[in-house]
Amino acid sequence: MKTEEIMEILLDYSPFGKKLVFGINRKKYTRKIKRSIWNKLIKILVWFRRSWKSYIFRYLIYYLITRKKIEKENILFINLEDDRLFWNRNVKNLRQIYETYLENMRPKWKIYIFFDEIQVIKWWESFIRTLYEQNNDIEIFLTGSNSDLLSSEISSSLSWRFLEFKIYPLDFKEYLYFHNLNINSKNKYLKNKIEIKSLFNKYLKYWWLPEILEINNEEQIEMYLEWIFNKIVIDDIVKRFNIRNVELIELINKYLITNISWILSYKNIENSIKHYSHNISHTTLTDYINYIKKWFIIYDIWKFDWKIKSIFDTYKKYYVLDLWIREVKKLNSTNDLSKKIENLVFMKLLQDDEKIYYWQDDKQKEIDFITKNKNKFDKYQVISYLNPKNINRELWNFRLSDKYIKWDNFLITIENSEILDYKWTKINKINIIEWLLGI
Questions:
Q1: Please, what is the average pLDDT of the chain?
Q2: Is residue 259 included in any domain, yes or no?
Q3: What pTM value is reported for the model?
Q4: HEC string of the chain?
């Protein structure tokens, strides 16, 4: 590429003479990343497509300039998916971009490099590692959207010289903030309770990638989400792993997202696939599920054994990244309310960096979630409503699990919060909205 072409692109992304648009400050992520600034380790932001990693980049640049008083010339920012770079996405041209920046901007002292969507550059790890090793006064930030940036695949190439920050779709508190509701106290919640409940019902349908908020038409939202999903399955997973039987991996994916929250074995899944006249080996099934997991469409959790405090993976429970994935495939229904809430609770626990398991005894009595933080265990049951038919089933399991370890018991519902005393067992019944908002 010519120097003039490179500089045109760099100036389009540089913070010179323009206001950086970064949506809202996603504090749960920016706080963690800001604490890592001045640490030389490479910072990698990785997660699902369209989860606003780029906007977090822009906020960090804004923070460096306005709060840390870093000169604008010391910041190199570029989105490597820019179409003007399409024929030049290789390590040689990445180095040319870097050297053109140095020659023309002439930064003094420390440089802050922000490469957005680094995974489009083949062998990018070599260039980044070289920069890291040869320059003391440099700090590197990267984003990526797929498994090329998973720690399991880059740890050896970067020799663990990185910090990984996983970026999730909007949580409910952020979603409210987009609707000009900053709910940080119980009084604010009560004052806006009717509007919050209405927004929660919408949130429960899709959860929300940030860009959906800019689309007002329901049909267009579904068209956009279907495009995102197809791009993930076809462009990302199928092409990345050279999958020949596209119908089969779509079938496996549909089965898993249909049966969220159910305890499944690979045998269950194999038998279901056979009903569609598909024979599949255990190895292929394992590989396909792992591919889907790498693209953050589904997650699994293992069973926890209280007696020996260990985990087993013969049976697992599966959850989906975001309920819009089920909506696109027309799998959500009014009968799924408890399932949806359970999936929502799972994602909140995941975002809180909890270690999550489920528990089940020999008689199929189950606790939806067991979370472990150091030596403390919390137990969670999730149900939309308690009624005479389900109260003993849902609450008795807390007593069963208390035989092994007694810690806090939480029942997440859409009913009012209160403390329950069930057969001498204390249970914290918490409204799902209040729990998500932390009030």
A1: 85
A2: yes
A3: 0.86
A4: CCHHHHHHHHHHHCCCCCCCCCCCCCHHHHHHHHHHCCCCCEEEEEECCCCCHHHHHHHHHHHHHHCCCCCHHHEEEEECCCHHHHHHCEHHHHHHHHHHHHHHHCCCCCEEEEEECHHHCECHHHHHHHHHHHCCCEEEEEEECCHHHCHHHHCCCCCCCEEEEEECCCCHHHHHHHCCCCCCCHHHHHHCHHHHHHHHHHHHHHCCCHHHHHCCCHHHHHHHHHHHHHHHHHHHHHHHCCCCCHHHHHHHHHHHHHCCCCEEEHHHHHHHHHCCCCCCCHHHHHHHHHHHHHCCCEEEEEEEECCCCEEEEEEEEEEECCCHHHHHCCCCCHHHHHHHHHHHHHHHHHHCCCEEEEEECCCCCEEEEEEEECCEEEEEEECCCCCCCCHHHHHHHHHHHHCCCCCCEEEEECCCCEEEEECCEEEEEEEHHHHHHCC
